[in-house]
Specification:
The protein has about 170 residues and is of the alpha/beta class. The chain has helices at about 5-20, 25-30, 75-90, 105-115, 130-135, 165-170; strands spanning about 45, 50-55, 65-70, 95-100, 120-125, 140-145, 150-155. It has a five-stranded mixed β-sheet with strand order 5-4-3-6-7. The radius of gyration is 14 Å and the shape is globular.
Length: about 170
């Protein structure tokens, strides 16, 4: 039997594919349930070594880019070079975080993927589906950008997002 999170994630993957028909500029409103301008709530996640963690140390302290991703997600693969390039350019001003979903992958698989592809973004493992439950994430490849005050300034999904423009909204 498929658990609730896995079922929601499968639906989210289908919905994520469906959102590709929506123009990129309009897609932000479909990425998460939280409205732009709201304060990003904290989530309970794990380090890739299985230790409890939260995003609280970053929210409201620094601009933040969070990508909800999976090793098997084609849109996430398309975003990787954009996220890495933005991190190289803005990494002194913005904290870049990954939230790896737990559906059909393990922390070990996430670590191997990151090493193989040079994805050097600090990444947490979302074993219990907190991003889905708290943020209302609709699909992997969701990017959430938060300003220094902890307010959401961008939320989008899909492989064709303009990551640099999203990051500039937080500065």
């Amino acid at each position: 039997m498929i658990d609730t999170f896995a079922r929601r994630l499968m639906v989210a993957a289908v919905m994520g594919a469906a959102t590709l028909a929506i123009p990129a500029a309009a897609r932000a409103q479909y990425a998460i349930d939280l409205p732009l301008g709201s304060t990003l709530p904290d989530v309970k996640v794990e380090t890739l070594d299985g230790k409890p963690a939260t995003l609280a140390p970053y929210i409201g302290k620094t601009p933040l880019l969070i990508e909800v991703w999976a090793t098997w997600c084609e849109n996430c693969k398309a975003l990787e070079p954009k996220v890495i390039a933005a991190k190289k350019k803005y990494g002194q001003q913005v904290k870049f975080l990954g939230l790896a979903v737990s559906f059909n992958q393990s922390p070990q698989r996430v670590k191997l993927h990151m090493a193989k592809h040079g994805f050097d973004v600090e990444t947490y493992y979302d074993r219990k589906g907190e991003a889905d439950a708290v943020y209302g994430v609709k699909a992997t490849s969701t990017v959430i950008v938060v300003n220094k005050a902890g307010k959401i300034v961008y939320a989008g999904a899909g492989g064709d997002q303009d990551i640099e423009a999203a990051v500039r909204k937080a500065l």
